[in-house]
Amino acid sequence: MKRVEFFDTKITDGFWKQKQDLIRNVTVKAVYDRFYDTGRIDAFKCDKNSEIKPHFFWDSDVAKWIEGVAYLTREKREIWLEEIVDNIVDEIEKNQDPCGYFNIFFTSVEPQNRFKNRDCHELYCLGHLIEAGVAYYEATGKSKLLNLMCKYVDYVEKVFVREKSVGFTTPGHEEIELALVRLYECTKKEKYLELSKFFVDERGKRAEETIDWGEFSYNQSHKPVREQETAEGHAVRAVYLYCAMADLALKYKDDALKNACEKIFDNIINKRMYITGGIGSSHMGEAFTVDYDLSNLFAYTESCAALGLILFANRMLLLDNDSKYSDTVERALYNGFLSSTSLDGRSFFYTNPLEILPQLYTRDVSVLEKNYLKLPVTQRQEVFGCSCCPPNIVRFIPSIGNLLYTYDEDTIYVHQFMQSVAKIKIGDDVYEIEQKTSYPYDGKIDITVKGGSIKLAVRVPYWHSGNLENVTKGYAYSDINENSNTVHLDYDMTPRFVYANPNVISDSCKCAVISGPIVYCMEGHDNKGHLRNIVLDTNGKISKGFDEKLGVPTLKIDAITRAECDMLYSFSQGKYENTTAHLIPYFAFANRGESEMQVWHSYKI
Amino acid sequence: MKRVEFFDTKITDGFWKQKQDLIRNVTVKAVYDRFYDTGRIDAFKCDKNSEIKPHFFWDSDVAKWIEGVAYLTREKREIWLEEIVDNIVDEIEKNQDPCGYFNIFFTSVEPQNRFKNRDCHELYCLGHLIEAGVAYYEATGKSKLLNLMCKYVDYVEKVFVREKSVGFTTPGHEEIELALVRLYECTKKEKYLELSKFFVDERGKRAEETIDWGEFSYNQSHKPVREQETAEGHAVRAVYLYCAMADLALKYKDDALKNACEKIFDNIINKRMYITGGIGSSHMGEAFTVDYDLSNLFAYTESCAALGLILFANRMLLLDNDSKYSDTVERALYNGFLSSTSLDGRSFFYTNPLEILPQLYTRDVSVLEKNYLKLPVTQRQEVFGCSCCPPNIVRFIPSIGNLLYTYDEDTIYVHQFMQSVAKIKIGDDVYEIEQKTSYPYDGKIDITVKGGSIKLAVRVPYWHSGNLENVTKGYAYSDINENSNTVHLDYDMTPRFVYANPNVISDSCKCAVISGPIVYCMEGHDNKGHLRNIVLDTNGKISKGFDEKLGVPTLKIDAITRAECDMLYSFSQGKYENTTAHLIPYFAFANRGESEMQVWHSYKI
Predict the structure, then answer these.
(1) Which of A220, A300, A414, B360 is least buried, going by the fewest C-beta atoms within 10 A?
(2) Which residues of chain B does A535 touch, with a Cβ-Cβ cutoff of 8 Å?
């Protein structure tokens, strides 16, 4: 099974075209400006006398932004962006150690401490610089960054594999493993694939490879990766590792790796994933915790983790065409990932809670440290100290076409639905495939394939309630030929109530509401009183609407709510009044100032 | 209005006799043993070379224990306890500075830092030593400790009032204010009352009187006390201050103080008190927070704060005979205070949460610092670092008769119900009053008054659903004379469902259950599955039972609960199965090992 790369697809209109335009017209510059303001750009000059002390992960922030620039460039050149990138690359060239080593922090501030501390993100940064180098070369033909990074990787191979002369064996924060697979695919040099396999194989084999403040599982080093069956530790590190494991399982036909990926994936989606596709419940270690521990209020659910889950799930489709993977891509894409970015494309969430109670932020009024409970911030910010998420969004959305199709000798698999065209070369045949749809707001999708006879396998979303013919593992198979080259789909986007497993105590006696792939939420802006007092009538009336200001669809649902009263405690329930609950897509919350918000609602039992 | 002191009452049988026996036979020694083990007793030797460094609040822990010994002694001498106390008093005498100053920590470790840091509890410790001295003198006639403390107080008066030669003006932790009133009552020396008034009057007048890490309100110094209208800051400090304010309002007929007390009290019971009578919602500053912020899971609700609320409310009855005060005494007494102690009298809660979810304690498995969220401990402990609560229990329960009666010229007011006898001298008349009752498990109370004609005012508890005649401010008035000297009461203890104000978002769509004064809870031990999934049928059957092992009454309530299922998220609510919810008194929770527990339950809406 192979992937149709984003540059062979083109999002032509609709939901994702609007998002891609926003990245190009707003976000890429907004993120650059914040990076410039915070010193991240100038930091590449490695000026030892700079007043701003760089952080050892700053390289990666900018690298991801460069990767995003590359993807934008691939569709349409933006000279001003290329100039910025070229200048940064020149600085890297200027400051790269003759041996190949480069890291803003360790080059300019602590050269004596290179590769001594496993948790200092040097290989993580290199991973992102590799991805940037590959992407920028493939987009522009400019190979300088790629070559600089190849030199660096060769040095890494020397000191980590051959000499074993460094302070640790495998990176504290995974990323280089999947980047090395990309480097291999770009350069076709086996040694890069082997280095990736080395890092993956060695992980979890050494008791000494912990970090100061955490346990082994924090960075997935608690056991060899092929023996891991549950998603553990720092969620972003975890899914980046799982991506590499899936890549290597495919490249090496490694069934043990594939098997581990499948078990871990199932553990995530059956026990440890929010309805939004968010993962990593706890701010402690930004980590997975235990099965069914999915607090809404304290949800950590980092944007990068949702994105990483998309990348992992999308890779699993190359190992097994099962809609549990593409459904998960969709779930995270339209909810836990998309919520990361404001509708205007300028500000971002690092964490994406499923409930916000602004009054809790004022509860510890008597003491100074108000953020002690680590409640997530209630409003998106333009930049943050650890600003990994914004550039991740910049690189992901322009390359979102990567999610659409895979193929093998005789079948094209359609995983996601976007108004788009694509070219797919299978053997000597070239197919043109077009999707016409208003997805995700309408379930009608027309898929036309030109170029000859082939099988088409189209995902049937888990939320579609009708029956289709010829469905295997969540894909409806049909034959495309000259007489019949269009498949007409009409997935049912009637709003549905969702109930969590009884073991998810945070969702006990509560329901969520989805319409198609989109999880809805209530915001205080649209609803009177405390949201927790609103009790949905799951047998009542539901109507669809549209919020002109936000530009998103809405739902109105029959409900009851308790009237205000004076007593703190009383023997009467008080009056339950009829009301109408107003819901908006979860991804659109927090675009109108601070307010209560919740995804899980009480309902009449 | 005057109080009938505990030593003029005698609990003769039933619930509180059993508790008092437990203190005498078990708790007083258990607490002493732990204090001895931890070095608190030997610390009075003030050995500069001791390996164990004392804490600056240790004096107060032992002082409260001495006070408890005094109250036990008052009823029946325990020579071994007196010997311990006498030895401690000898050590205090030996180590007291010639000027009068004494504090274990500052005498032995940092003599140079006396009275420099407002938050170092020296005056708080002195307050408890005063109370111990008064109590021990009144119980045994031994005046040594009392005299030592009078000398210390005289020194305090000199350096704080006359010389103003110390580092602050009013104590960081209140307690000495109410103790000085007691000292005045014992010695009849006005200067002690005046010193109390000085500390109360000066509080909140100085901007510089904050502590390092908190805001002014932390120790009620945000404004002059007569201007305070809400309960703020550290809950124990707060209620100890309010006790002194109520005392001084009475002694000085100070209406401004009385008015502040009333406003603060109303703020507590109408906005900031748990159904258990627990106060102080947040572990941050062990403090009151904002109105309606009453998280069950993160409830701090220190045992000493519930006790302090009892002491405050009981004092308010001397200013205004309103059952809101005695109802609050009862609420805190049978619930938030009583939960502090294990049924075997050997271990204690510092905090008393209203919900326990043991699985949350394992959620941060990937990192070391598991207690970061400051979830309360789930099981009582024999001693803790800040062990203020256990000796508070030791001194309170033997003196619980203080809660029963007040009187004025022509009326005896009956506030609490316990199987007991009492003598009340009003003018030249001596009345004998006897209560026969199985309270709090049965609402039948027979009150017999001998000694002549008088009016009897008996509290009608807020939870009683019937109507009584001649009720004013929650008290039923009747005439006692030779022909009719017994009042027969039969308060309705039918279990009732309680609903919180809609602004208490932690209790949204939930109900609590009480029977008489007792709040009930569910424990995992008695109920299958997660408690949060159990939905009570408030129109269903409720039956009373008895748990032989725990020795407490129980309730069984019709309910439904969701059946187990595999899916993490599904479109079906799944099956709701009929079940029976088993409840026990809240005060009896956590006596059978760790388990889920909740006070607020979902109910069929």
Answers:
(1) B360
(2) 509, 605
Q: What is the pTM of this model?
A: 0.93
CA distance A516 to A512: 13
User: Does B211 contact chain A (CB < 8 Å)?
Assistant: no
- Which residue of chain A comes nearest to B234, CA vs CA? A366
> With an 8 Å Cβ cutoff, are B569 and A500 in contact?
yes
pLDDT digits (tens, 9 = 90+) for A561-585: 998 899 999 999 888 999 999 999 9
Per DSSP bridges, beta strands B510-515 and B518-523 are: antiparallel
| Interchain contact, A288 vs B362, CB within 8 Å | no
- Decide the pairing of beta strands A411-414 and A454-459: parallel
Amino acid symbol at A219: N
Most B-contacting residue of A288, A509, A570 (CB-CB within 10 A), to test interface: A509
pLDDT in tens, B576-604: 999 999 999 999 999 999 999 999 999 99
User: Is any Cβ of chain A less than 8 angstroms from the Cβ of B494?
Assistant: no
Structure tokens given for A38: 């915070």
pLDDT over threshold 70, residue A257 = yes
Residues whose CB falls within 8 Å of the CB of residue A321, separated by 6 or more in sequence, listed in order: A1, A406, A413, A457, A473, A475
Contacts with A366 from chain B: Cβ below 8 Å: 214-215, 217-218, 232-234, 282, 284-285, 287-289
DSSP state at residue A593? S
Structure-token pair, residue A236? 């972003």
* pLDDT, tens digit, 9 for 90 and up, residues A216-229: 688 899 889 999 99
Collapsed DSSP state (helix, strand, coil) of residue A452: coil
Q: How many Å apart are CA A307 and CA A461, to the nearest integer?
A: 19
CA atoms within 13 A on the CB side of B270: 12
Mean pLDDT along residues B82-100: 98
For an interface test with A, the pick among B223, B228, B569 (most A C-beta atoms closer than 10 Å) comes out as B569
Residue with tokens 């949201």: A531
Task: Say what the pLDDT of residue A366 is.
Answer: 38
CA proximity to B71, closest of B29, B40, B28, B124: B28
Of A218, A496, A568, the CB nearest to B571: A496
Q: Which of A504, A566, A573 sits opposite B499 (nearest CB)?
A: A573
For residue B432, the SS3 value is strand
Q: What Rg value do the Cα atoms of chain B yield, rounded?
A: 24
Three-state secondary-structure class, residue B500: strand
- With b for 16 or more beta-carbon neighbours within 10 A and e for fewer, the B92-102 pattern comes to beebbeeebbb
Does the pLDDT value for residue A213 go beyond 60? no
Is any Cβ of chain A less than 8 angstroms from the Cβ of B230?
Answer: no
Instruction: Return residues 336-365 of B near A (CB < 8 Å).
Output: 357, 359-360, 362-365
Partner residue opposite B508 with nearest CB, options A285, A508, A533: A533
> Which residues have C-beta within 8 Å of that of residue B546, sequence separation ≥ 6?
B552, B553, B554
Q: Give the integer Cα–Cα distance in Å for A376 and A336.
A: 14
Residue A572 contacts B, CB cutoff 8 Å: yes
What is the b/e burial string over B161-182, where b = at least 16 CB atoms within 10 angstroms of the residue's CB? eeeeebebbbbbbbbbbbbbbb
The values of phi and psi at residue B569, to 5°, are: -130, 135
Nearest CA in chain B to A465: B571
